[in-house]
């Protein structure tokens, strides 16, 4: 199988985000979407950000699914307060936003632009709907309404990675999930480092990927961390953590980082 280039030149990756909340019924959600003050235009299952209008989204309102609650909560470990945890447990519906829709042309020039549009669109949508929790299904990460809006307001590389990329680590292995939202490979760091240091090195590498437009064809190379002495040999490989039909699967691959 051939590996994708890892470049963000053309938006070709759908991002999936869900908003969990408590509403009386689907009619209430539909009414909020149709309100003239809503910052997104919605017609049927199509949603467009009124401010930018660059990405065509598919919107679906789904009924309560108790089986999802524990997963959404665990994906928000350390980020969700008891209030948000209770809200997820008690959710009546969840609104799923998918975009850019592959069957429709969206007016963005890169996958990174598509992610930024999703960040802004969801920030407006969760406030207009008075939702409780944002769950990024393409990363397995959950956020509060306040943190998502704050990351959108910051609109910098660090905040954007924090919004769309889950980072897990410990026991000498640190890895990310969700960089395909930007059109880039994820990363796996294998090194016996304290959790805080390992997390810093991983985050630095993800920011390096995003800010430099890291191309998979540059593999292998040596990445120099700002937090830990010495370099890390970065070699691109295929994503083997998830099935190809999983939203978490990164078709751009995974960078394997090992201390030189």
Tell me the number of structural domains.
2
Largest sheet descriptor? 7 strands, antiparallel
Sketch the topology as an H/E string, one letter per element: EHEEEHHEHEEHHEEEHEEE
Radius of gyration: 18 Å
What does it look like?
The protein has 260 residues and is an alpha+beta fold. The radius of gyration is 18 Å and the shape is globular. The protein has helices at 26-34, 66-74, 82-89, 111-129, 145-154, 157-164, 195-212; strands at residues 15-21, 40-43, 46-49, 57-63, 93-99, 133-136, 141-144, 166-170, 173-177, 186-190, 221-224, 231-237, 254-259. It has 2 domains: 15-158, no CATH class; 166-259, no CATH class. The longest helix has 19 residues, at 111-129. Helix 4 (111-129) crosses helix 5 (145-154) and helix 5 (145-154) runs antiparallel to helix 6. The strands form 2 sheets. A 7-stranded antiparallel β-sheet has the order 2-3-4-5-1-6-7, sandwiched between helices.
Concise structural overview:
31% of the residues lie in helices and 27% in strands. By secondary structure, the protein is of the alpha+beta class.
């Amino acid at each position: 199988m051939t590996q994708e280039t890892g470049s963000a030149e053309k938006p070709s990756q759908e991002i999936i985000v869900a908003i969990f909340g408590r509403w009386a019924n689907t009619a209430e959600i539909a009414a909020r979407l149709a309100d003239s003050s809503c910052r997104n235009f919605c017609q049927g299952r199509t949603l467009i950000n009124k401010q930018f209008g660059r990405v065509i989204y598919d919107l679906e309102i789904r009924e309560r699914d108790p089986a999802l609650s524990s997963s959404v909560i665990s994906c928000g470990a350390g980020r969700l307060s008891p209030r948000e945890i209770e809200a997820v447990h008690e959710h009546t519906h969840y609104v799923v936003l998918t975009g850019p829709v592959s069957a429709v042309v969206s007016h963005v020039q890169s996958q990174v632009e598509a992610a930024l549009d999703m960040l802004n669109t969801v920030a407006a949508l969760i406030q207009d709907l008075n939702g409780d929790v944002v769950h990024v299904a393409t990363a397995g990460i959950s956020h509060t309404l306040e943190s998502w809006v704050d990351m959108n307001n910051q609109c910098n590389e660090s905040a954007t990675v924090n919004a769309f990329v889950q980072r897990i680590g410990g026991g000498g292995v640190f890895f990310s999930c969700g960089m395909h939202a930007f059109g880039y490979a994820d990363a796996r760091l294998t090194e016996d480092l304290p959790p805080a240091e390992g997390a810093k090195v991983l985050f630095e590498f993800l920011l390096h990927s995003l800010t430099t437009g890291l191309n998979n064809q540059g593999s292998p190379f040596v990445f120099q961390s700002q937090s830990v002495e010495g370099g890390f040999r970065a070699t691109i490989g295929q994503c083997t953590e998830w099935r190809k039909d999983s939203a978490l699967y990164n078709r751009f691959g995974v960078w394997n980082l090992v201390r030189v």
